[in-house]
Amino acid sequence: MSDREFWVTNSVRLQNRIVRWLDIRFPEYLSVFKDWGCKRSLSTLKTFPCPQDLETYTVPDIIDAWRVHMQRAGGSTGIEKAAQLIAHARRSVGDRTAVEEAKADLKRLIEEYERVTAMLKQMEKDVETLLSEIPMAQQLRTIKGLGKIFTAAILAGTGDLRQYAHGRQVLRKAGLNLAESMSGKRKGRIVLSKRGDSALRKYLYLATVQLVWNNPVFRHLHEHNVQKKKMKKQQSIFKLIGKLARILVGIVQRGETFTPQKTVLSWTEAA
Predict the structure, then answer these.
(1) Closest by alpha carbon to 242, among 197, 207, 196, 213?
(2) Are 8 and 149 spatial neighbours (Cβ–Cβ below 8 Å)?
(3) HSE on the CB side for 203, CA within 13 Å?
(4) Longest CA span, the chain
(5) Sequence spans of domains, the chain
(6) What is the pLDDT of residue 180?
(7) Which of 40, 42, 83, 169 is paired with 187 by a 20 to 30 Å CA distance?
(8) Residue 200 in 3-state DSSP?
(9) What is the pLDDT of residues 227-246, one digit of tens each?
């Protein structure tokens, strides 16, 4: 997971560089392809990176060029995208200086981006294989919405969850426990300590947000916090991080799978 985090950071940097290149050379491009990383868009950037490369081509020419890189290049979507590209290219305000150097730069960026993307896909397969060898990982994945990457990141940060007596210890390890601020204008205020594993803190937060979106139990608890208890949404998320930590430790300690009914019942009783 540490290696994956490094390459994810590199991937984000490459994506930012490519978007910057487009902003300078073909600023209208992202109005045609909102997701510049899709197959059709990457095919375009490899073949017609600059607006002047598109000006003299027809719609069928562009679709034929896409077929070199993808199978389903035509259809109504392909025709529409090709027509939009030509129209935008002819009135583009992008920079047209040092064109060959710019194309070479984009080519290098895309090649590196695709290499890193392939590497990350392989890492995810390796993570899946490793998780299959860890019994407690199978217990954690019974929580709907807690995918393999979140499960792996949490286990990478916490280690053996059987060693924990309570979810509070997980929060402390992640720096999500409360502490008194001792500096500046915040002196004397109670804040998150953030004295812990920053990667674990990040993935516990992201996992909880994902669960609020995809897990009916966490969605219900979040709505209860916001509507009944009048909490701010962010307050509710941090409260649910504590709930998630207790669930993780609890199901591993008891050798159980996630039981939605028990979670809602225990929450109601605590409330």
Answers:
(1) 207
(2) no
(3) 22
(4) 70
(5) 2-126, 135-270
(6) 46
(7) 169
(8) helix
(9) 998 989 988 998 999 999 99
Give residue 271's pLDDT: 45
Q: Name residues whose C-beta falls within 8 Å of residue 231's C-beta, 6 or more positions apart in sequence.
A: 225, 239
Element (H, E) at 14: helix 2-25
Query: How many angstroms from the chain centroid is the CA of residue 245?
Result: 21
Side-chain-facing half-sphere of 19: CA atoms under 13 Å: 13
What is the rounded distance in angstroms from the CA atom of residue 20 to the CA atom of residue 34? 14
- R_g (Cα) of the chain, nearest Å: 24
φ, ψ dihedrals at 134, nearest 5°: -110, 110
How far is the C-alpha of 227 from the C-alpha of 209, rounded, in Å?
A: 17
CB–CB of 224/243 below 8 Å? no
Q: Which residues on neighbouring strands pair with residue 191, listed in sequence order? A: 179
Q: Residue 223 — pLDDT band, cuts 50, 70, 90?
A: very high
Query: Is 2-126 a domain of CATH 1.10.287?
Result: yes
Query: Which residues, listed in sequence order, are joined to residue 192 by a DSSP beta bridge?
Result: 178
Tokens encoding 104: 């070479």
> Residues 257-269: pLDDT tens digits?
888 776 665 555 5
* pLDDT for residue 71: 78
pLDDT greater than 90 at residue 125: yes
Q: Give the chain's count of helices (H) and strands (E).
A: 13, 2
Output DSSP code: residue 193. Answer: -
E strands of 133-259, at which residues?
178-180, 190-192
Return d(Cα 2, Cα 232) in angstroms, integer.
33
C-alpha 251: how far from chain center? 26
Q: Give the Cα separation of 196 and 177 in Å (integer).
A: 9
pTM: 0.81
Euclidean distance between CA atoms 175 and 200, whole angstroms: 9
